Each structure stands twice: as C-alpha cells, then as structure tokens.
User: What shape does this take?
Amino acid sequence: MSTAVAGEKKNYLNEHTGIWSWLYTLDHKRIGIMYTVSLFFFFIVAGCLALVMRYELARSGPSGLLTPEQYNQAFTLHGAIMVFLFIVPGIPATLGNFLLPLMIGAKDVVFPRLNLFSYYIYLIGAIMALVALLSPIDTGWTFYAPYSIQTSQGVVLMTAAAFVLGFSSILTGLNFIVTIHKLRAPGMTWMRLPVFVWAIYATAAIQVLATPVVGINLLLLIIEKTFGIGIFDPKLGGDPVLFQHLFWFYSHPVVYIMILPAFGIIGEIIPVFSRKPLFGYKAVVISSMAIALVGFFVWAHHMFTSGISDFSAMIFSVITFGVAIPTAVKVFNWVSTMYKGSIRLDTPMLYAIAFVFIFMVAGTTGIYLAALGVDIFYHDTYFVVAHFHYTMQGGAVIGLIAGLHFWFPKITGKMYNETFARIAFVLVFVGFNLTFLPQFVLGMNGMPRRYFDYPPEFEPWHFASTIGAFMNGLGYTTAILNLGLVALFGKKKAPANPYESLSLEWQTQSPPIHDNFEKTPIITDWTYGYGQPVKTAHH
Amino acid sequence: MSHHEHGPDCTHDHHGDHMGHIMPGHIYRNILIALLFLTVVTVGVAQIHFGGVWNIIVAMFVASIKAGLVAMYFMHLKFEDKFTWIYAFIPLFLLFLLIGGVFIDNPFRIIPSPQ
Amino acid sequence: MGHSTAELSDPQGPPHVHHMDAKTAYESAKFGMWLFLATEILLFGGLFCAFALFRWMHLDEFHAASKHLNVWMGGTNTVVLLISSYFAAMAVDAAQHGDNAKVRRNILITIGCAAIFLVIKYFEYSEKIHHGYLPWMFDKYSPEVAHLNEKYSVFFALYFCMTGLHGLHVLIGMALLGWVYSLAKKDRFSGRYYTPVEVGALYWHLVDLIWIYLFPLLYLVG
Assistant: This one.
C-alpha cells in the first residue's frame, strides 16, 4: 500500500507498510479491507457464472455453450459461492469490521487475534470450496439428501468447506457481540448506538446461534456419505426431510444475516442525506431484534412441498406473515425520515432510495410465497428465484455497495468519481430490475428453476432478463472499478466528514489513525440530531 | 463496566483487585456429592416404567437438575450477569423450537394407505 | 498490537492489551467462552433432535438396541466426568487464591479423569465393533446381529455420532487444559489473573454437561 508521504498525516494505511504488515495485522480496519478484496473476488467469479447461465437461457433450445450437466454445475457453483463466500460474510466482515469499533468509540474489537483468525479460516474455507467445486457438483447450493449422498464425492469437500466457513462466521459474530457489550465508549449507552451497530448486533446473534445447526447437519451428511449410516437415507431407516429441517433452521435465519446489516446501512445513509433525524429510532432497534428472533420461527416455509404435515405447514405459513411486520416498520421509518427532509442525491442516497423501492418488491413477493396455497404453485419456480434475488442482490448487495460508497472517504481518505458512480448506479438499477422483474412473470407462468432449457413461449421474458443481466454486470463492473482504482491510485483527498454526518466514525480523521481516536470520545447525545440545535459537541 | 450479583454464599473480600466471584471451597464438594447421588437416582428411576413418554421426561428432568447444578455452581452461572444468562439459556429455547418444529411435522403427517 | 506476555512489573498479573483494561479483558473472555459454549450446545442439539425424531419413529428398536449398551461402563464414565468437573472447578478456585501448585495438581487430575473416560470408551467401542454393531456392518457380521434391521442401525449410527463427537470434544478439552497446565507450570496465575483457568474449565464443564444428557438418553431410556 502507499508509504507515508512527507506532510501526509499518519493513518492506519501508511503507518505500517509492506505485505506482512497486512497479513499479520490485528487492526480491524485492515482486516475489513482484506475481507472486502477477497469477497469481491468471489463475487466477480460467481457473477460471471451468472452471466454464463443467463447466456445459456437467453434463447429457447441449447446454446451450445453448456451441456445440461454443466448447467447444473453452474447454478450450484454460482449459488454456493455467492451464499457462502460472499453474502453470508458480506457486510459484517467488510463494513462491520471496519466501522464497528469506530462507531462505538473503541480502539479495536475485543478479540483482535480472533478477528484475524476468522479471516484466515474464511480463506481456507474459500479455497476448499473452490477446489471442491472443480469436481462436478450438481446438487444445487442446498445439498439436499438423498441426492447429495448418492452423487459426486465433491460434495464432501464442499460441505466441509461450508463447515469451515461457518466457523469463521461464528467467531466473527462472537467477537462483535462481546465488543458491543464491553467496549462502548463512556456515554455510548445502548439507546445511543447507531442503528448500523444494532443491525450488526442482531446479525451477530444469528451468526452465533444458527450456524452450529447447519454445521451438525453438514457433518452428518459427510458421515453418511462416507460411512453409509442411515440418518437421511430412508432405505437405512432415515428421513430425508430431517436434512431439510436442520438445513433450513439455519438457512432461513441466514437470510436475515444477509439483510439486517443492509437495513442498518440504509438507516445510516437516509438521515444524513435527508438532514433529518431517523424517524422512530426505538422502533427500528426493536424491529431489528424482532426480525432476528422471529426469523428462527419460520424455517419450514422452505419445505411446504417436501411432504411436511399440513398442520405444520399452516403454522409456519402464519408465522411467516408475521415476520414481514418488523421489516415493514423499517420501511415506514425510512420513508418518514425522508419526508420533509432536505434531500441530497449523492450516490449513496441514490442506492439507498433504490433499496427502499427494491425491498418493497422483495418483501411483498415474500408474502406471496408465505401464503401456503400460493407457494404450492410457486415453489421451485422462477418466482422464488426472482424473490430471493430481489432480497439478496437488490437488498443485501445494493446495501453493501451503498455503504462502500458512503464510507469510501472514511476508509480511503479519497473521493470516488461521482460521474462514474452515477453511471454505474443507473446501469445497476435498470439492469437489476430488467433481469428479475420478468422472472416473476416466468414463475407465475410455471417456469421451473434450475432448468437448463424451456419451451419457446417463455423466450421473450428470458431474453429480456439476459439483457438486464449483462447491463447489471456492466454496472457492477463500473462501480467496482471506480471504487477500486480510486482507492489504489486516486489523488483527490476527502475531508474528514464530507457528508456532515453526526455519527462517531466521522468525528475522527479520514482515514482514521491506527487506534481510531486521538482520545477516547465521550458521548453526550444520540447520533441522529440533524437539523436540531446542537446540545453538546462530541469530543 | 459490569457488576456481579452477591449470592448468599458470597464471601469474597472487596479489597485488592478481584476479578470474578470466589465461592467458599466446600460448596464444590457438596455439589459433587449431590451430583453423584443424582446419578444413582438417574439409574434407579430408569428401572421404573412410567409408561409412554414419561420415562424420557423423568430422565431428562433428573439430568436437567444435574446440569443445572454444574452450570450454576461449577460454572459460576449463579453469579454471572444477565447477558450471560440470556446466552446460556437461549440455545435451549432454540432447540426446543427445532425439536418442536420437527414434531409438529412428522407425527402429523397423513400417510395415505396403499390402494 | 495485543499480546499476552505479562508486564515485567507484575509477572502474575493480567497481560497488557492496548485496547481495554484488565477487568474488561477478563469479563470479555468469560462472556466470549459462554457464547462459544452456546454454539456447542446447538451443535450437539441437532443430534439430540435427530435422536428425538428417530426414537419416536422406531421406539421398539431403540429400546432393544439400547440394551446392547453397557450401563456399567456408561455409568462409570458419568461418575468419572463429574469428578473431573469437580477438579476443574477446584483448579479455578486454586487459581483465584494464587496457588499454582494446586492448580497444576487439579488440572492433572482432570486430565487424568478424561483419559480414564477415553479408555473406557475405547473398550466400549471395540466391543461394539467386534460384535458388528457398526451401522454399515449390520447385515454382514455376526449371527447375533443378523436379525437386526435398519432401524437398529439408526440407533447405533446416532450412538457413534453423538458419543464420537463428544469424545472429540473430550480430546479438545484435554488439549486446552494441557495449555492451562503449561501456564500454571510457570506460576502464571494469581488472584489478579486466572482467565485461562476459568475459560478452560468452562469448556471442560460443557463436556461434562453433554454427557449428563447422553448417558440417560442412550444407555437408560433408549
């Protein structure tokens, strides 16, 4: 990285230099950056796979690019990499690592060595996953028994990789929970915490509590595949639906791991760019914790057509409707924050507003799927594919991109190119919706997911979706190049607080010094007092 | 930043740096005796056939008393703050959910009889 | 950067970390270990869930299969682990009073109990394997198991998975306690600093806790 130039202020980037100062670092900020680089590498790999799939699906009939078996491997690879290597570590590992101590006024997380260890475990798991995915695995990222038991040996290595990655997730979550409990600066009471910190806390709780269940599930799968015991195999007295219970008990809460931090980011951006206090702070806090809790109660809505009892299906359906309520509360809070605010449409705000729109679609289509009678028809169709891409990509990824733009000056001390950022935004927003809106239509008309080919009447929608996908890809490429190249080679220096945010991380220099603050800050007011008379200043 | 409760067995002195709560030593021995006794109870009570689901309920109940003693006294949970309590007990709640969810599924499935 | 060597001025005091004071460091380590134990409970919990389901599905087979387990060996192991837990707790007590010699003695006894546990386990396992109770050997091995069907197989699959995973944690616990012992050998602990002993003992108690439930489930109730 850059060496300290004469006259340049000492900060965490230039204080120690050389590759080993990064690989052995205990600084949460550097660890966050290393995660960001790694995660986006895998995002690009999995994204390219998506484009390969969309190319295949653009027209009815085989394109000649992929065999049907290769298509199955492609969607398995795409899903497994995106979920386990990108979105689950996601915002917590990247922006969470960088910002959490800054936002609570601490010098670092409570267990810095554990933090670095988490990162290396992530890398080990990621390498294991890549090696595993080279052998043909075509089970889909969900590894359902009994097919996963009967098929390729790559499943063993892949699920072992997921186990290792789960460990990284657990240790990060554990670190964050203890940090938030123990290292808040004087005066930083629970109800003065930024909503991003609350979001990270709720996420960390899910990481710690849900991940072990999928851990044991995958372990049992590995043992059954290797030794032929009969836990999931009905011929040996087992129950394949048990695999799904144990799998989704984690994998439903995991979607809240993916989205809660994004909610937190939006909750930070909107007040700053509306110059208004966050509306209903308490409601936002309570809804974050409620989503984390209720998210544990609904897992079997992924199993409505798997043969579970009608009785349980009805119960899970009703509770799933319930989990939408706290999310809706947040949407009301964001919109109410913007109402009569003084809106500045910088790039982070563009992404944030887009997020609100996209998440309305995402959440509402989730309600469709929660309805038992509807889901019987929509399950395993493109309706589901569109829904989860609206939540995961339109929600979590756009939240991450918004956050990377917002905190870019804090992280790098530079300003990205606003023009290219806006071009990228337009490409992403238009491309994303063009990719996935047609997929709702496809699903409603019965197009099944994970299918290599389809009848000609579906072609116009698929073709439009593919155009959107390439536009989307171009948009992300532009955004990533903009941020990456400016971070590495940019010259324009950013002020310490370009967006005039009241939040604690902005009250220190950009980029921060190694220990974050010159003196431990003392907090006397909450973070969102925009447009209100200043009570007392932060130190 | 955090405080600890002062339980009835608390005898630690307040001068000098102290970290955690120090229990009087004989408590540990008494708990061990109780645990060994409860182990005998565990085996004994398993010989009685309560019928139906009760055998396992009684066995788990006795095991939970033993587990509670280990947690409260050997692991000092009795003297820990409320957040430790929350994270100590939430896994049990979640397991209850998981097993409950499985048991509103499997036993309620209607298996059609072969025609 | 954080490091764990003690200050020269207080070789038995808490190590200097630059981002928090000693009390916060101690409480954080304890809290962190409790969180980790929560994950372990959930990890084993999945197995308990599987056991609950299959016991309900194949109750008679589970009863019958359980009778093949040796209650005496299981019971002895229960007692051994309870005693080991006692000595782990006494090690923490000794450390709180700054008695490193007692810490070493109690840790060694704890590790010794763990070894006894594993030895008994070894005898149990080899007896099972010799009689062909390994799930995938079921229809191939000795006449006494030839009549057993796949539903017995699930009991033994769960038996080996649950006790096996537990045994792995016994090994990990022994290693952790061994590390604590190595610190006690250097007279590292005092009333001002005994975090590794407390944290190591907490982990060890979990191993005991899990067995407290495994024993009646597998050996007694079946």
Summary: Chain C has a mean pLDDT of 89. Helices of chain C lie at 22-57, 59-66, 71-96, 100-130, 143-146, 150-185, 195-221. The longest helix of chain C spans residues 22-57.
